[in-house]
Hints:
The protein is an all-alpha fold and 65 residues long. The chain has one domain. Helices cover 91% and strands 0% of the residues. It has 2 helices and no strands. It has helices at 2-38, 43-64. The radius of gyration is 19 Å and the shape is elongated. The model has no long low-confidence stretch (mean pLDDT 89).
Amino acid sequence: xxxxEQNLNSSxxxxxxxxxxxxxxxxxxxxxxxxxxxxxxxxxxxxxMIHICQSKYxxxxxxxx
Length: 65
């Protein structure tokens, strides 16, 4: 029974750690967005940032495949 409990605890711990990492990532993204919009970018700068982020996302996802 100890083996099962140990594996369940390990699995649960990994799941919790993953959730914490996601929360930290979301917080970091939100902080960056707030800082970016604090500078009051114009429409061209906003579109450029969207394009850069989409390109980076596509690059990252293609590298993971």
